[in-house]
Amino acid sequence: MAVEKISVTIITLDEEEHIRECLESVKWADEVIVTDSGSRDNTVEICRAFGAKVYSDEWQGYGIQKNLCAGRASNDLILNIDADERVTPELRDEIFEAVKPDIAGYYIPRKNFFGGRWIRRCGWYPDYNMRLYRKERGRFTERLVHESVRVDGPCGYLKNPIVHLTYNGISDYLERMERYSTLAARQMLDEGKGSGIVNLALRPPYTFFKMFFLKGGVLEGADGFILSGLYSCYTFAKYAKLRELRRGGDNEQ
187 and 151, same structural domain? Predict the structure, then answer.
């Protein structure tokens, strides 16, 4: 099947646990570009062994880092994935068949896993993300966290999902929550978001209610309950940290 040449872009930092399977899933791509931010494990060596083009750059934020990686691509069509994601053969074949020159980007669903289990509800599926896009017509928003691709032109949707090994379990979630909630608070500060007692009191329980009841988490059993509770904690943490930043509690602000 004839298809445009595709560049796969990946940003990494200490991804030895995940990167090998990730690279294996995209070995069909015309080129793989990795932007590493100072890994101290074998991430860089593994990437080079797979034939990826590896660059080392100081961390500047998720959106900036992904745009930097895309800027090094030699092809116009870019597929961005994370180290803990996998491109299935079915998705690969669909990409080959679906790509059209007049479409600026494609939304791809993600099959998200928690502790080795696919979570179908809680708002975790289909979880469409713009991941396949044209370099000259799209780029990531340069946010500290929760970055996304914005394109100039019509978009399409693919059916086959990216497999996302989201969290190994509760400890993995809590460890990352500390980092993401701090970044989210700083992003909200930049955007002028409020940090009053109403947000602190109402947003966390609403997050739980939305995920567990409105998004069907109750049908996921204990995992749905745990995830809803964890996301409620994340919501509380980011608003509490935003309040702290506004009060000058962070010496970097």
Answer: no
